Each structure stands twice: as structure tokens, then as C-alpha cells.
Amino acid sequence: MTKRLGVLLSGRGSNFEALADSVDAGRIPDAEISVVVSNREGAPGIERARARNIAARVIPSKGLEREAFDRQVVALLQEHRVELVCLAGYMRLLSPYFVAAFPNRILNIHPSLLPAFPGLESQKQALEYGAKFAGCTVHFVDENLDAGPIILQAAVPVRDDDTEASLSQRILREEHRIYSEAVTLVLAGKFKITGRRVTRTET
Q1: Mind telling me the catalytic residues?
Q2: Which residues of the chain does CATH 3.40.50.170 include?
Q3: Are 54 and 32 a contacting pair, CB within 8 Å?
Q4: Model confidence over 1-25: pLDDT tens digits?
Q5: What is the CATH number that goes with domain 108-203?
Q6: Model's pTM, two decimal places?
Q7: Are 18 and 175 in contact (CB under 8 A)?
Q8: pLDDT in tens, 72-94
């Protein structure tokens, strides 16, 4: 049976496109992206979704309380019978209401090796701190910022001549790779969560 994904984004949507490419190529088997949602008018990711003939909606968040906005988004995802929610550059913290609506069924990709450098400008934080390795993390989402159990990570060496742009670009390649891998793992149910630790299982 085909599993239905919902993607939330606020910007250009490169991780959305990587997921869509993986679905189209069969790297994420038996899945489809049912709807793409943005909280920002003019987000390029929405146009990219429409170009792929994927349902895409903008629900403006400006001026709304967090839960009031999230109730609209959750209703739309449920209308499209979404089974797994993938955040792809979605610049909002989810409310407890949203998290409870999709327990252990919301994933996020973050451009650092969490718990290091949560929040915004993670690559800049890594460079300023003098980190020798940066990277990216796919994790389950809870109501706290970049804090849910970690599913997969990929490390990227920090070069002496790196700029924020060059480091971001190398991390982004790894983001595209491990996000699809993590989505496949979760859709197949081949994991268990013990405390904060996510481990792979065979069934």
C-alpha cells in the first residue's frame, strides 16, 4: 500500500525536491508526496511542487497564534490522509497539538550534528566555534527546538578555507542523501525508540 507523505517548507524546497526525486526513482518505495504546505507566500518550494503536479497550499502564519495556525495545517494534512510529515526548511516550532496529532510521525532535517548548534545559522555557528566536523541530522520532532530522538546523522569535515556558503553546500548534499534514507526506514517501521535512542530493527 502506498504511504502518503506531507512536506512542510518555508523556503526554496531543496530537501523537498530531493525527497520527490527519491520517491520518483523508487529509492523511497511505495510512497507518494500527497501535499506540500508552506507558511510563507511566495516560497519557491511551493512553485516547485506545483511544477511536479503535487498539491500545494500556502497557509499564512503571520498574525496567528501557534496552535491556531497548526490546527489549520493538521486539518489539511489529515484531509490528504498524510501518514508521515517531513519538515524541509520549515521555519516554525510545532505546537504540542501538532506533535500529538502525528506521534513519532514527524521528521526534520537539521544542518548540524545535533545536539550541537541547534536553531538558525548552524553552519555559521560551527565555523565561529572552530568545529572540525559539521554535518546534518534527521530526527523525530517534538515540541522543543531540534530536540527529538536522532534517526540518522552524517558528518562533514570543516576545511580551513571553508566559508558559510561552501560548508552549507557540502552539508546539503548529505542532507539530501540521509533524509531519503531516514524516510524509507521510518515508513518501513524498521526502528524502535528506547528513551532517546533510535535503533534499527529487521521488522
Answers
A1: 110
A2: 1-103, 108-203
A3: no
A4: 899 999 999 999 999 999 999 999 9
A5: 3.40.50.170
A6: 0.96
A7: yes
A8: 999 999 999 999 999 999 999 99
